[in-house]
Amino acid sequence: MKYQTQKIAFAYFGVAMALFAVQVTLGLVLGWIYVDGNFLSGLLPFNIARMLHTNSLIVWLLLGFFGAAYYLLPEESEREIHSPTLAYLQLAIFVLGTAGVVLTYMFNLFEGNWLLGKEGREFIEQPKWVKAGIVVAALIFLYNVSMTVLKGRKTAITNILLLGLWGLALLFLFSFYNPSNLALDKMYWWYIVHLWVEGTWELVMASILAFLMLKLTGVDREVVEKWLYVIVAAALFSGILGTGHHYYWIGTPGYWQWIGSIFSSLEVVPFFAMMAFAFIMVWKGRRDHPNKAALLWSLGCATLAFFGAGVWGFLHTLHGVNYYSHGTQITAAHGHLAFYGAYVCLNLAIISYAMPILKGRDPYNQVLNMASFWLMSAGVVFMTFTLTFAGTVQTHLQRVNGEAFMDVQDQLWIFYAMRFGSGIAVVLGAVLFIYAVFVPRKEIIEPGPVGHAAE
Amino acid sequence: MSEAASPFDELPGDLMIWVLIVSELLVFGAGLAAFLAVRLTDPVGFAEAQDHLHRTGAGINTIVLVTSGWLAALGAQATETGRIGRARACLAAAAALGLVFLAVKWVEYVDKAAQGIGVETHPFFTFYYLITGFHAAHVAAGVIVLALVAARAHPREVEAGAAFWHMVDLVWILVFPVIYLLR
Questions:
Q1: Do the chains contact at A237 and B20, CB–CB below 8 Å?
Q2: Predicted ipTM?
Q3: Within 13 Å and on the Cβ side, how many CA atoms surround A254?
Q4: Is the CB of residue B120 less than 8 Å away from at least one CB of chain A?
Q5: Share of chain B above pLDDT 70, in %
């Protein structure tokens, strides 16, 4: 660790991992509710568990991004983080807000209260006081990282990372605007949900991946930066108007069907470019970095993001297909593999890279960590297949044959049972990862040769 | 590292402008392909709708835009040989013809509106407005780009601006026959 303030990342990664555990555990509970519909129906209804599952996912991914920023910015801009105190204050606000959200959701406290009650908008259900807290924390974060970068060296990686993080924070402001017209509500709602994961988050992803490639493969910065700019251009070009693929059936004008279909078809391009980038960098790289786990997660991230976000997204993005498939398990299949591949793997990659350094165990191979990659990824991929088959059957029975929703759900039972099995693998993989990252183990390995590998 | 020369290194101009050009061609190409596919479902309706278009106006616009592209190329050439005054004159003329294109287009849109034709009137017009509207937005952006690169008259920038303008030109040459002429 070159800079003392990189230590801030440790606290962020720690909280992120705790929420990761909560998220996958709730996923397992939800998986069982699909198998036995009455499971916990009095104690933890399906909709509440789902809110906790999705909200904890988003919050831990964000905390991972913040941690990654605090870790890589000092190295990139060659100076300490502007204010460590503010960084810890920001984390404290997030923890407080998260605790408030969990309690408010579970016990439905202050129902209907303007400030304290949950808002009932999928994914942005948070009570207003929590939303305000998120904005305050985001402002603290942006101030802190921007000051760090402004005073230090500016690189393509810091520029793109800051662009992504600023965009992410500004777009969240739309969560305060809640028009009574449901079509308008949904239209603005996607400004957050879509323009996060298919816009600003992709910038964060590309820059963190670029940082990892730079460190792990030793390829020239100039080459990495060229790729980074191309990826980011492709992401924004396709992703922004790609929002149209959410405007097919919500009451927005019909021309969105063509705008959405055409632009979102191209959304596969940046993900393909990221996969090509990662593999070409490793192939060209001269460095045999000892941290094989971080490399595995990075390559896994780029590959599974291409399939989950790119291929599974394209499967149902054309409006002619989406007319039949929207809102079925096809969406769930895409959602799981896309989030896992693009953002979960990305966070676990930077955590796998940074943790041995933060804990002073470098160089460190992390064999257990690699085992967790295969267990968790196999679980999510199997889950994706079961849900894709479930969605295909569901689309036919429900949308083509016109059978009732719950009748169809009964017929999908076998897929849900298999999905629950894959969920167990994912939870075990997550537990193994957290154990491998936090619990010190004696594993001495020789650092590989640097700078004179096969030409 | 013994690096083999990448084919990208031989591209004239900046790599990013080519990324943009290829992306734009993919979008317009997909739009025209979708137009042709939907046209198969209703050839008679599409032919009737097409008769409401100004073929002459679009033909004039084709000549305007091609001439403008030629002027932009002359401007780029003049910048490289250091004749800044000539370069600025050529680029300004190219941008002015871009404005002429937009004026003709505007007359066309106003006429459609007067006939009560809108985006939702017929699938033909949905594509007509989307594709030509999106193209016109690029012409407007191109006029601004040409003005900016002419002001600074830096060879690399003028080359990138002219490349963008040629892309706008090329797209129109694809749009014009497919939407206005194809029977």
A1: yes
A2: 0.92
A3: 12
A4: yes
A5: 97
